[in-house]
Description:
Helix content is 66%, strand content 7%. It is an alpha/beta fold. The chain folds into 2 domains: 53-165, 3-Layer(aba) Sandwich (abc type-2 transporter like fold); 172-366, no CATH class. Strands 2-1-3-4-5 form a 5-stranded mixed sheet, with helices on both faces. The mean pLDDT is 77.
Amino acid sequence: MDDVFSWRRLLVLLRKEFVQILGNRQVLYILLFPPIVQVTVLGYAMNPLVKHLVFAVVDESKTPASRELIDAFTANGVFVPRDGGVDAAGVYRAVQSGTVDAGLVIPGDYAQSIARGAPGDVQMVFDGVNSFVANLGAGYATSIVQDYNARGDLRSPLSPQITFAYNPGLVTAWFFVPGLLGAILMLTGLLASASESVREKDEGTLEQLLMTPASSLEVLLAKIGPLFVLFLIALLASLAASALLFGLPFRGDFLLFMGISSIYIVSAISIGILISTFAATQQQVVLISIFTALPLMMLSGAFAPIESMPPFWQTLSLVNPLRHYITIVRDILLKGVGLDVIWPDALPLIAFALVAIWISATRYRSQLR
């Protein structure tokens, strides 16, 4: 009776599966090595605490009282000061460019106000694009001011007034949605392009394709083209849904955004095609794609602030195209900046796309050798 459970058949099947897995070094590598790496990376990267927030300081008072206030902010290492310029406008420019997380402006009459017993008004501006960091930074700042007031050496305590630029309501979705767009494009780009390429191997048409007079680059671009158009449509639809559901603003140049997004999509598809040259089956494609995409997403700032990562992982994230794309998208959508501000992230993204296309084309043709 075949429908009766048989331990003997089960043991035979288990033995067969074990023999197959242990005899396939590639599968063993995929199953054992990636989880170890991912646990290590994610354990460091996904840290909810934010430390070493860089803030621009403009001290127009230049008195012992103002220097004491700056020392109060920097004493515990949460805020790391950086010269923001000669005036408040320099602070705003630094926050807009993303070179600092916050700005502190101490007016020239700060010491005189304290001496008269009047409130010492200072201004602190946070980059509200990253609502998570802004919220924590504001909490740190409020706590520091409260401790400073508790010293009792001021006749009139400070009354902090904090301004959140670009995201006054600190809408969390405005921070996470651009990250999700980039992460989804990366993951689907890898899976779709790699799966499509491996399918040709399964059907036996890959060798015929590569034996044609067409160059590797021509074959590669022909494979990228249809996926590229579909992903652009998906991106526009996702943006429309984000604006409708979350009120996500679009303050920058649309053509600039589409140009940067096109470069990023080409990078994602090229990586997927590169993955297909190392994979022989659809199962391997899925495993390798997930192993590749997860570290890229976690080290991109899409879900956990890069500022919360250890210095080593922050440096490593500089070679991550997803990090640069998310930074650019947030700057264009929420800050409305132009190429003069985003070029430090645009150049690495362009370089990565060119390298990915070149390596993919080289590896794709070499599969016949």
